[in-house]
Specification:
Chain lengths: 446, 106
């Protein structure tokens, strides 16, 4: 039976680059996928593109492409990535320039456009899923609306001979599903095959998170050589059967345990993992170690896709001001608590207008709140942190200032003050009737 | 004993919802997880963290539970004031849960 090998070269935008090169050089892979688009990355990229129309794609696109294009071209490895962010065509053109500069001008590079559905969303208006309100009610705070596209346009691009396929917003597992569908000619209505392929894509999309990253917990869960963590390879056969592995000799480990953790990562109801191409069912997946760093994953199923696409809506939510300062030595905790009390009172006294405030002692109770933190021993040092949500930047700045002035006005021996104020680009979701998104494939130079 | 002795865990995030998997190291402990790691106990453990509900899903084929906790991430990962906006550190807190072992289930 035919098998393809798909490497996962990035789990997020800022991920390490040399494990991707290692996959291309030594992984005997047919496809290299880079998943680089977090929930709000498109919205931030759209903001960047408004300032500079040629930008708006992944900031590491150039570095990644320069690193892997020569070896991928030499070995015939196809690249699929969502590094296009808010500007897939710009990213494709830039990639073509890089290829040319490397003497690889024969590479065919395709951009998938049409995930940007801002106009369709404004025209028809849709209710926001996370809170009461609609797209139109976001008014001029609305920045972007991008549909999670499925595998089909990527399949067409690969069928059209693309060596590099660059998308904007697409479902993360679909980046992996597309090569499977194209290579094996899977029907787009074979829900069980698409479900099992989605299991593969879901397991691979966070790269190092299945090879031992986000996992080590000594001495219960030890992982060797995390500094040289290898990225994963999915061996997928024509019938959908999957073995997860990694480059021999690389750091990390692929075990049943790493695979189980990643199977449930960011999953809610495991019987209904809703994707653009299929509603995948992870509930009967079986995971077995068949050799060192080789894990067989089977039993993924699926049901008919829904009539809608999830759309990620970026908007300016609010502003956040923050300040931090440290105390150490005997009595550090008491001085930290005193510092928080002072700032709490100062924000009231000086009339800083906030919608939400948070007072933390880093090292004591900042992560899980008072109840879970109650039994801890007194630490040697604490870091005071005050964060607040405001309606504008001017008010946000005042929060950090009230922490900084503790230097000369607060408890003894406060050091290392730091402050920031920023606008908050948040994302919410709407459901768009599928037919309103119209993806297109654009080959560079055509 | 602590849950950490028999299970491992990973947190994921979507919007204002956190999910935490609890996976038995050894399949024989799955029944202990089913009996003792209930939605109610997880909700109580995370008092002050989880503002919404806790729903438990069961995955017997991999001896795992999946807890989905709504209104948990400070209004949503992309807008939260929290230091750990994703809630990635929550899984470690859950592994501190006390589990009562009896002679026939250890």
């Amino acid at each position: 039976m035919r098998t393809i090998r798909i490497g996962s070269g990035a789990g997020y935008s800022g991920d390490r680059i040399e494990p991707a090169l290692e996959l291309a050089e030594k992984g005997e892979i047919d496809y290299l996928v880079f998943e680089c688009l977090g929930e709000r990355t498109v919205a931030l990229a759209q903001q960047a593109r408004m300032k500079n129309p040629d930008s708006g794609y992944d900031p590491l696109l150039e570095e990644r492409m320069r690193a892997v294009l020569p070896v991928c071209a030499a070995k015939g490895i196809k690249i699929v990535t969502n590094m296009g962010a808010a500007n897939p065509e710009g990213a494709a053109k830039r990639t073509a320039e890089i290829a040319k500069s490397l003497g690889l001008s024969s590479l065919k590079i395709a951009a998938i456009v049409g995930d940007d559905v801002l106009d369709a969303c404004k025209e028809r208006d849709f209710p926001i899923m996370e809170f009461d309100g609609t797209i139109r009610q976001l008014g001029n705070r609305l920045l972007s609306a991008n549909a999670y596209l499925g595998a089909e346009p990527m399949v067409q691009a690969l069928s059209g001979g693309a060596d590099v396929v660059i998308t904007g917003r697409a479902s993360d597992p679909a980046l992996f599903l597309a090569p499977m569908i194209q290579a094996f000619g899977w029907p787009m209505e074979d829900w069980n095959l698409l479900g099992q392929g989605t299991v593969a894509g879901h397991l691979l999309e966070c790269a190092g998170q299945i090879t031992g990253g986000y996992f080590a917990d000594p001495p219960y869960k030890d992982i060797p050589d995390l500094a040289r963590l290898g990225f994963p390879i999915g061996e997928v056969a024509e019938d959908g059967s999957l073995v997860v592995t990694k480059v021999a000799g690389s750091g990390g480990a692929v075990t049943a345990r790493t695979c189980k953790e990643q199977l449930l990562y960011e999953v809610h109801d495991p019987t209904q993992y809703i994707q653009p191409d299929v509603v995948a069912d992870f509930s009967q997946v079986k995971i077995e170690e068949i050799a060192a760093d080789r894990v067989r994953v089977s039993g993924g199923r699926g049901a008919k896709r829904t009539g809608t696409l999830k759309v990620s809506v970026g908007y300016i939510d609010s502003y956040i001001g923050e300040g931090q300062i440290s105390y150490a030595g005997p009595g550090a905790l008491a001085r930290g608590r005193l510092a928080l009390e002072i700032v709490r009172e100062r924000l009231k006294l000086t009339g800083v207008s906030t919608n939400e405030l948070r007072f933390d002692l880093i090292g004591v109770d900042s992560l899980h709140g008072a109840q879970l933190s109650a039994g801890a021993n007194e630490p040697y040092e604490v870091r005071v942190r005050v964060a607040g949500r405001t309606e504008n930047l001017r008010e946000a700045v005042r929060i950090g200032n009230e922490v900084e002035t503790l230097y000369t006005n607060g408890p003894a021996a406060g050091g290392g003050a730091w402050k920031s104020a920023r606008d908050v680009v948040a994302v919410a979701s709407v459901l768009l009737p599928r037919e309103l998104a119209k993806p297109q494939i654009r080959f560079v130079g055509e | 004993m602590r849950l950490r002795e028999i299970a491992h865990s990973r947190t994921g995030d979507k919007g204002n919802t956190s999910n935490i998997s609890v996976i038995a190291y050894d399949e024989k402990h799955y029944s202990l997880l089913l009996e003792q790691v209930t939605s109610e106990r997880v909700r109580a453990h995370f008092t002050g963290v989880v503002e919404g509900e806790v729903v438990r899903y069961e995955l017997p084929d991999i001896a795992a539970l999946n807890f989905v906790m709504t209104q948990t991430l400070g209004g949503g990962v992309t807008r939260s004031l929290a230091l750990d906006a994703h809630g990635k550190s929550l899984s470690s807190a859950l592994l501190d849960l006390e589990i009562i072992a009896s002679p026939d289930n250890t």
